[in-house]
């Protein structure tokens, strides 16, 4: 099955290139509903470990999609030169106060020069891109990466988009409550990157929270194992580590 057939279009209006405007969604979740990112903390820790395993300190890293800013601040404390990109002006301004070089913008048109970064992180971002914008977004990441630069990315695995479909009672349009446009499996996700990247690692996994109790440990281990086989109860993700050709 081809990539187009793997994707489900939600909403009445098909979005055209550079019209991926989700500012209202992210202004809301990143400013007023930050608790929504609590479950993402294990994922941020995992990504930070991947960075430290593969990159020297003081390397330049771009994180696309700020969220609560946890990942950027943690990597900055470790000595990396951190940059960030997000459509929300509010969170960009907030992160700039901490000395992290952040800009307002979209992944389809990254406002940084060619060959600038040693690593780009795009975690839980690519599923938000309209299908017709996917290839230009991947090319934009490649453009700002240095030769042999590293891409670290995660997306939901085999997401059933209609499970989060909602209807606006005012305008009557349907939409995905998190702004997702695509559902990925390992095969169609890896195909996005084969032209410009060498895939070093791709796998399914989950990011369970750990607690020091018998029940907490058992729950962690069960979710971890189920994530490796992509069982939906574990909220599995695809993790991809690729190097620019």
CATH superfamily: Vaccinia Virus protein VP39
**Rg, Cα atoms, Å:** 18 Å
Q: Say what oligomer this is.
A: single chain
Identify the CATH class: Alpha Beta
Outline of the structure:
Helices cover 31% and strands 23% of the residues. The protein is an alpha/beta fold.
Topology:
Layout: H1 3-6, H2 23-32, H3 41-54, E1 60-64, H4 70-77, E2 81-86, H5 89-96, E3 101-104, E4 117-123, H6 134-144, E5 145-156, E6 165-167, E7 174-176, H7 186-191, E8 197-205, H8 214-228, E9 237-244
Helix pairs in contact: 3-4
Question: How would you sum up this structure, described in words?
Answer:
It contains eight helices and nine strands. The chain has 245 residues and is α/β, with parallel strands linked by helices. The strands form two sheets. A seven-stranded mixed beta sheet has the order 3-2-1-4-5-9-8. The chain has one domain (3-206, 236-244): 3-Layer(aba) Sandwich (Rossmann fold). It is globular and about 45 Å long. Helix 3 packs parallel to helix 4.
Can you tag this structure with a few keywords?
245 residues; alpha/beta; Rossmann fold; two-stranded antiparallel ribbon; 23% strand; globular; disordered N terminus
